[in-house]
Amino acid sequence: MTMEYESNSWIWDGLYYYPHFFGGLMLTAALLGVSTSYFGGIGVFSLPHLWSDCFHKKKCGKKKRVRVYMDGCFDLMHYGHANALRQAKALGDELVVGVVSDEEIIANKGPPVLSMEERLALVSGLKWVDEVIANAPYAITEQFMNRLFNEHKIDYIIHGDDPCLLPDGTDAYALAKKVGRYKQIKRTEGVSSTDIVGRILSSMEDTKACEDHNNASLPRDPLRAIQSKDAHLSQFLPTSRRIVQFSNCKGPGPNARVVYIDGAFDLFHAGHVEILKKARQLGDFLLVGIYTDQIVRGSYHPIMHLHERSLSVLACRYVDEVIIGAPWEVTKDMITTFNICLVVHGTVSETNTPLTGQSDPYEVAKSMGIFQLLESPKSITTTSVAQRIIANHEAYMKRNAKKAVSEKKYYEQKMFVSGD
Predict the structure, then answer these.
(1) Omega before 254 within 30 of 0, i.e. cis
(2) Distances from the Cα of 275 to the Cα of 286, 289, 377, angstroms
(3) pTM, 2 dp
(4) Confidence (pLDDT) at 165
(5) pLDDT tens per residue across span 391-411
(6) How far is CA 285 from CA 7, 8, 342, in A?
(7) Quick one: which of 380, 207, 190 has its CA closest to 304?
(8) Fold adopted by 235-415
(9) Where exactly are the transmembrane stretches of this chain (predicted)?
(10) CA neighbor of 147 nearest in space, from 109, 188, 175
(11) Which of 70, 146, 169, 231 could bridge 158 with an S-S bond, Cβ 3.0-4.6 Å?
(12) Where in the chain are the domains?
């Protein structure tokens, strides 16, 4: 009996939503001599099935798209931010991201390293982001929450499983939780903006110690050097699954114009996003070569190791594929293997690699007439970002010390959280 009711549910749906049309259909059937008992489910005439399919499609077409919101400072954008937004997008159909204002960051966390313009460029450049709200508040106030629900049509507000507390100790997402419109994702372990600042400050101390050693007669304590470096080693544990999650999992078409660009892409910043966007516009498929840590090695570098840098590049919406550990020189074999049509390089790039000046990495591409120098849209570099922190290191050391307390508490109380 239940199965019979379910199989004929289209009839009751039709009677409820379209009584005049359905009545006319039954009258026409009666005049044509078709038994109305058929409409109880007897018979094989195709019209009811056609009506059922049409009606079902009409109902499905009205399905509301789920819009989710996630906010953050996104200062020193890293793969942890990208993975958080990837998880948030998986909880809905459209992802709206709020970028917290400079003033709110200063009031709640300390001075930001990147400007609002730079942070907006980074967030907008992520493949999972649909819309961006600039100058979002640090805390979800009732006024802003109503604006999200009514103006931006947000269904759920998302945040990680790590606590986000205001200076007074209250939960920044308490209101969203209270109204039942809050969803939680898993924090990406092994990286944070605080950790990256720590790596840069640690590199600064190591560099200064080396300089002092070169100007002094006493040898540097090797144990102290190792302890200093170990204090800020990356805790990221790369897995093949994470790489797949970030990948487009698609190769170029048979006639695609493949564009190749390479570099360190250390401490992924707005300059990287803009040059990748410009490179992608020159073809159908953008292949990005990411140098090994050995190639990148120099003063302060690499701040992020190879797998961390690879994920940051893969998260960019303009990138189709990456070569993890690309060679310094673009060879003829490499061009043939990947069917590269154009090799490009920006006018602004780091020049601190040990291989700089030894050979022209683009000699083959130039001889083949497929090399193009691109005017870099921004002058920002990894070194210039690091220098901002070093120039204001006292303020960032104070910020890191404060954040380190909450980080330690989080890890002490940490429990397993399912998720991606």
Answers:
(1) no
(2) 12, 14, 7
(3) 0.77
(4) 77
(5) 888 877 776 676 666 656 655
(6) 48, 50, 11
(7) 190
(8) Rossmann fold (3.40.50)
(9) 20-47
(10) 175
(11) 70
(12) 67-185, 235-415
